[in-house]
Amino acid sequence: MKQFSRSIMFVVVVSLAASACSSNRSGRGNGPDEFRVLTKAPLSIPPEYNLIPPRPGDPRPQDLQASQAARIALLGGDGSAAASVGEQVLVAAAKGDLTSSSIRAKLDSETNRQVNKPLGFANRILFWRDGDTYIEDGTMLDADAEAERLRRKNVGLNATGGNDVVIRKDGNRIKLPGL
Fold first, then answer.
1. CB count, 10 Å around CB of 21?
2. C-alpha distances in angstroms, 42 versus 34, 35, 50?
3. Residues 72/78, Cβ–Cβ less than 8 Å
């Protein structure tokens, strides 16, 4: 009898768990609508067939310029409309109309007065060239001329100096397993 009640309890718990899983999908909602997600509308047949064929490489006429797309993303509009009365009142209350037109120049001059910490020892060692690829006199290194100069000095012919390499096997070394 005890075994029978346990099996009934097990069947009830499993059926409840299975029914909970089936309602999980409806709780998550539907997936995104592709027409709201995509910025480029899908192809469709135009109602007017007297259209000028597109030229390769030209931008699409319905696409926005990058600056316009950024303005819309940041401000929520195309930015071409004049400010509403409420926006003008808000700017006036924040004294935004009294700002200096030379604020950028003022900020730049204040930034230039900033004292920078000197480079540490490790940075001076690692970044001693400051990204320069030029020789001190301002000319680039000519690879062909440098190779000819090294050939004349007999430098860099090969690692062995032109001699044959002889490999000797010493029998009295300790052998490590796997080597």
1. 8
2. 9, 8, 20
3. yes
Is the pTM higher than 0.85? The answer reads no
Separation between Cα atoms, residue 128 and residue 122, nearest integer Å: 10
Tokens of 73: 């993303």
pLDDT by residue, tens only, the chain of 179 residues: 778 888 888 888 888 777 766 555 555 666 666 666 666 666 666 666 677 777 888 877 777 777 777 777 777 765 567 788 888 898 889 888 788 878 888 887 787 776 667 778 888 788 776 655 555 666 677 788 888 888 787 765 667 766 788 888 777 777 777 76
DSSP states of 137-175:
TSPPPPHHHHHHHHHHTT-SS-TTTTPPP-----TTSPP
Are 57 and 63 in contact, with CB atoms under 8 Å apart? Answer: no
Q: Where are the domains of the chain?
A: 63-113
52 burial (CB, 10 Å; 0-12 / 13-18 / 19+) is exposed
Q: In this structure, which amino acid lies at residue 10?
A: F
